[in-house]
Amino acid sequence: MVELKWLLLSYKVPADPPAKRVALWRRLKSIGAIYLQNGVCLLPKTDDHVRQLKMLENDIAEMGGESVLLETVALDQAQNEKVVARFNADRDEQYREFLGRCVGFEAEIAKEFSINKFTYAELEEEDTDLKKLQGWLDKIKKLDFYGATLAIEAGERISACEASLERYAQRVYEAHDENRPIGGNDAV
Known about the structure:
Blueprint: E1 5-12, H1 18-30, E2 34-37, E3 40-44, H2 47-62, E4 66-73, H3 77-114, H4 120-143, H5 151-178
Helix pairs in contact: 3-4, 3-5, 4-5
């Protein structure tokens, strides 16, 4: 059995103000923590996670709360698999949302083709949207500690989005080349 080590953070913070509680929850989710129950979360043991959780421990104390940070291992392989499955389920949920946005991106490109709208302004907008998708996928991948099942599909889908944008860009360039006078002479 491969022994996986985790960091377990148990915390309790005052109910008011709720914005601080929500901010803490968001920070934990943003580093990939899974919640075993309210106020109890788990992360793979890495130096980076130790550092981040130590900083959060300090923030919890400043909020008037209390926390305990422990290193832990599973009792057996079945428990390891349960924990890994929880991490993968969280990542797959993020990948599903990402895949839905990719569908929207590709639909937008298809719409531009269908109405023959080949402008540099639209190309710039689509390029910005693709960069956002790429950045989002990079963030999900950083939190995909155990290889969630939708990771490969997400990688293939971003490649398809990149190819769609490349085809669109080519049509924009062609559309603008068609409007230039032959020989480069503007005089009539």
